[in-house]
Amino acid sequence: MTLFSQDPIGFGNLSGLGYNRFMSRIILHVDLDAFFCSVEEIHNPALRGKPFAVGGKPNERGVVASCSYAARALGVRSAMPMSRAVQLCRELMIVPSRHNLYGEVSAQVMEKLHNLTGLVEQISIDEAFLDISDMREPVRKIALNLQAGIKNDLHLPSSVGVASNKLVAKIANEVGKKSGKKKNEPPFGLTIVPAGEEAAFLNPLPADMLWGVGPKTSVRLAELGIHTIGDIANWNQKDLVNLFGENGRDLWQHANGIDNRPIITGSETKSISQEITFSVDVRDEKTLEKTLREQAREVARQLRKNELAGKTVKLKIRWSDFTTLTRQATLPTSTDNEDEIFHTVVSLMKAVRKPNQPVRLIGVGVSGIGEPIRQLSLWGAGNEKSRKLQEVMDVLQEKYGKDVIHKGE
What we know:
Layout: H1 14-17, E1 27-32, H2 35-43, E2 52-55, E3 64-67, H3 69-72, H4 82-88, E4 93-95, H5 99-116, E5 120-124, E6 127-131, H6 139-154, E7 158-163, H7 166-179, E8 190-192, H8 198-202, H9 215-223, H10 229-234, H11 237-244, H12 246-255, E9 272-282, H13 285-305, E10 309-319, E11 324-335, H14 338-352, E12 359-370, H15 381-400
Parallel strand pairs: 2-4, 7-8
Antiparallel strand pairs: 1-6, 1-7, 2-3, 5-6, 9-12, 10-11, 10-12
């Protein structure tokens, strides 16, 4: 049985996909292909077909934020140190990041998605889930028209995964993008998983493609003889819970294609914040940064506790004359990371505060909140290690108090 297709001819009606309007949800995962690079190519057509990367300079510990498909063919990857990328590809051109521009273009894409349906959950600057369960047109037609509209109106390539839930739709898109790669060109993938075939589709895929399987978990699974998602699904759920705690239950459900999480729309977006009014105005910069660190730590802890992440970091600051300012920065991707929140809010403070200026109130907030989506294959082991360490610290602080353990400054 063909479970998915890059060019899904014959998937033109819902009944053929196993979808029942009254029984199944229909979720689209839309991912813009090499988004930063695609935007740069629009503004500089000379880059098309060339190996180039968006990111920082190699001599300044820069990192590849995105790379063209010509660069990928030579081994360059996102999140790679730029110095390593230059070693792999001597002719690599480096383009500085322009996040304001990427944000503007992303907003145009998201507007187009919202014009299709109100049930849109943006999960990063270049990704979103859509629930099209109530739409009457054939799934294939909706997806193809959406891709064509993004390409024709905004000149951006995109790939789409379709399934009955968010988990499978996203993984389907990842599979489709990999299998649909063309030399030096975006994949324009369209991958549809028929309803009822979720587990069968996931079965042969590597275990580390599943949400929640990081490097350490992957090693532990391999030690148990578990190498594919199907291997996880075949294990007894109770045994997985005994081995991995509650994460074992999630692993088993996800491996069987079970994911009942709803689309979280913008109207449901919340914010999490911490603020303090000092009894005496504070001038010392180290004291202010220490306060921001503690607030960022608590905001991040609350995000992780609720399995959320946010894109917009906010600073609230009040001077001694009661003038109150708010400043914010929108990140390229959602975060629940204490360090990322802290460094962002410190930069915001330094941009508005004069040396020795007294502060009466200071606060940290994160908004633009949704469920965290971790593209595990794109992150280095160091980031995964840091996240796992933080999760252990969260458990200890929850059980023994917030002051029992902290990361070293």
